[in-house]
Design goal:
The protein is α/β, with parallel strands linked by helices. It is built from seven helices and five strands; from the N terminus they run ααβαβααβαββα. β3, α6 and β4 form a beta-alpha-beta unit. The mean pLDDT is 86.
């Protein structure tokens, strides 16, 4: 495609795309990162991860959730594929820190990728109430959520999604 009108070229180059997207009806759009959120969790905590994923997608956020991206991961080197997502391609990493999180190979790999992002204010921990104290020393200093697996998941997941939505609106 070519454009020969210099005024049109000037117009296209100077559009504020995020403002245009909001003006035509998109609630949230992010041009800086591939994903607004990346979820990191132990497979045992998939129920909560699924609810958070669904809530964020309903609010028009782009979310990296492994189950939703299997068609892209298949036949790829998984470490090469996942590494950049947790290192920099997601604006925020939401990590579900249950007692099983540190025992899972992929959770360990993911946490190694995003551990340097704590100083960037881009890691949001969800501390499980039944996880032993001191298990996640660094994350206890970061504002996040406390999740109680002994009570109903839905209202807690809705609260998490609501707060994350407000965080992105800033």
């Amino acid at each position: 495609m070519t454009a020969e009108d210099p005024q049109f070229i000037f117009f296209i180059r100077n559009i504020i795309w995020s403002a245009l997207a909001r003006k035509i009806g998109f609630k949230n759009i992010n041009f800086e990162s591939d994903y607004d959120f990346a979820l990191s969790f132990s497979g045992n905590d998939r129920d909560l991860a699924e609810k958070i994923f669904s809530g964020l997608v309903e609010n028009e956020f782009s979310v990296f959730y492994d189950k939703n991206e299997q068609h892209r991961i298949i036949a790829e080197n998984i470490e090469d594929y996942l590494g950049p997502i947790y290192k920099s391609q997601a604006k925020y990493v939401v990590c579900l820190l249950s007692s099983t999180y540190p025992t899972r190979i992929w959770a360990k790999f993911e946490s190694e990728q995003f551990k340097n992002r704590f100083g960037e204010h881009s890691v949001i921990p969800i501390m499980f109430k039944d996880a032993p104290l001191g298990m996640f020393d660094e994350t206890s200093k970061i504002g996040g959520f406390v999740f109680d697996p002994s009570i109903d998941v839905d209202p807690q997941a809705n609260t998490i999604v609501s707060v994350l939505t407000k965080k992105m609106a800033e």
